[in-house]
Structure to design on (391 residues):
């Protein structure tokens, strides 16, 4: 989530087409291209966005409110997006073709986007969970059976002021972040239940989660601020791990943690992928940000690093390194996990020293590996944090 300048807050780019309810707009995108649109809404309007195209495409959707606050960032465009306008004005929508497959680089894909200003709930949808927060009723309703849709609504005075919709999948749809029957560690459930203001901005809120199902993916969590008005924060996508609360933050709110996902499957099988834990807090603008200053640990001695590097180096084969894809399952030890641990705990310089110690002298591709590692590191929470520090 981020905030942009007032006079640039209605657009991602320079040219936006205004969408009309019930009227599809056709366009095309090549990989890495995007298209921007606007939707003019009144306070309380329902907006149900639909994106259609070939199911093999990798399409993402971003949405900002008239003030420039992100409502959704990097969402699955094919799932569309359903919400209720909490501010009157122009909402900015962007659809991005995020396909990076080389053979598709010159292929232009046909896509359409539309939105409806009406929503009707299925008659067989039944309430499965309810929370009362600050005079608002937050409710989860699911269609019967294993398939169908799951709905999350926020109501007050007989009016629906917030809404989300998702497929039930195999895991049952939405659930509250303080539900002890749904994946969450007991300590996190207790903190979520006992903390009225989880984001620390002084406003009571409710957190709703969603799990897509599958072997180990994917988790999502959305916070709704329930003050004088309902304000939906951008959905946080945490992939293979949940965002869990582990402590109260001084001054209000909670501290959270989740594992880094950028190196999942990178150069090795998922089960061996290093995924260091990252501490997060909401800042004053309600953006979830990493707190690497809270993660600092004493540096290991150089003697220990040398011993660890020697033990790991002895396990590595001498096959030349070419790329993370070509070397998938080729590394016996994900030694870059130690590098990530050093970097995330405040010792980036030692990480590079460790790399020099651990890489076998006769193994080709050393410079290539380091360049690839740094490129991937830039995509992590640490990489984003460091980029902001240098701005």
């Amino acid at each position: 989530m981020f905030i942009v300048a007032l006079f640039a807050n209605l657009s991602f780019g320079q040219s936006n087409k205004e969408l009309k309810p019930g009227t599809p707009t056709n366009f095309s995108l090549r990989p890495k291209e995007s298209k921007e649109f606007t939707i003019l809404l009144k306070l309380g309007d329902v907006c149900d966005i639909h994106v259609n195209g070939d199911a093999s495409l990798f399409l993402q959707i971003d949405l900002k409110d008239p003030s420039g606050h992100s409502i959704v960032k990097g969402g699955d465009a094919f799932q569309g997006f359903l919400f209720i306008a909490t501010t009157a004005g122009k909402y900015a929508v962007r659809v991005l073709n995020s396909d990076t497959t080389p053979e598709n680089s010159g292929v232009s894909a046909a896509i359409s986007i539309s939105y409806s200003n009406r929503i009707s709930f299925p008659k067989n949808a039944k309430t499965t969970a309810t929370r009362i927060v600050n005079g608002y009723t937050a409710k989860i309703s699911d269609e019967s059976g294993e398939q169908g849709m799951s709905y999350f609504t926020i109501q007050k005075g007989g009016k629906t002021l917030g809404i989300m919709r998702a497929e039930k999948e195999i895991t049952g749809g939405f659930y509250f972040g303080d539900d002890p029957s749904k994946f969450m560690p007991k300590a996190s459930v207790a903190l979520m239940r006992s903390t009225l203001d989880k984001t620390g901005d002084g406003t009571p809120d409710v957190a709703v989660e969603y799990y897509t199902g599958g072997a180990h993916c994917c988790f999502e969590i959305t916070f709704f601020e329930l003050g004088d008005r309902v304000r939906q924060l951008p959905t946080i996508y945490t992939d293979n791990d949940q965002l869990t609360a582990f402590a109260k933050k001084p001054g209000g709110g909670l501290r959270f943690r989740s594992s880094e996902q950028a190196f999942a499957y990178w150069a090795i099988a998922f089960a061996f992928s290093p995924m260091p834990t990252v501490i997060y807090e909401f800042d004053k603008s309600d953006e979830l940000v990493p707190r690497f200053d809270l993660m600092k640990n004493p540096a290991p001695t150089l003697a220990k690093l040398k011993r660890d590097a020697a033990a790991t180096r002895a396990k590595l084969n001498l096959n030349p390194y070419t790329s993370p894809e070509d070397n998938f399952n080729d590394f016996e030890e994900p030694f870059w996990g130690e590098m990530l641990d050093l970097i995330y705990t405040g010792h980036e310089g030692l990480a590079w020293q460790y790399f020099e110690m651990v890489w076998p002298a006769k193994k080709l591709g050393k410079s290539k590996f380091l360049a690839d590692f740094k490129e991937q590191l830039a995509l992590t929470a640490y990489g984003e944090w460091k980029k902001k520090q240098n701005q």
About this structure: Helices lie at 186-194, 302-313, 336-344, 348-358, 366-377, 381-389.
